[in-house]
Amino acid sequence: MPKMKTHKGTAKRFMVKKSKKGTKVLKRTDGQDHFNSRESGKTKRNKRTDNVVSLPLQKTVVKALPYS
């Protein structure tokens, strides 16, 4: 049986972290690519952190990234 293929678009957008407590899927905050100087300080600060995705989306992402 051939190896499963990694979905490259998903691999670029999400990070899968594994620990003793379980699997966590992280995603960067949206809208960080262009012209962030106009954002308020609160918005800029919040964009620096990664967000944990919801459980249904987490299951989908883990299926799309079989070897991570």
TrEMBL record:
Biased composition (Basic residues): 1-26
Superkingdom of origin organism: Bacteria
Gene Ontology BP annotations: translation
A Pfam family of this chain: Ribosomal_L35p
Example of a GO MF term: structural constituent of ribosome
Region: Disordered, residue numbers: 1-50
Ranges of biased composition (kind: Basic and acidic residues): 27-42
GO cellular component: ribonucleoprotein complex; ribosome
Annotated keywords: Ribonucleoprotein, Ribosomal protein
Family: Belongs to the bacterial ribosomal protein bL35 family.
HAMAP family: Ribosomal_bL35 (MF_00514)
The name this protein goes by in its record: Large ribosomal subunit protein bL35
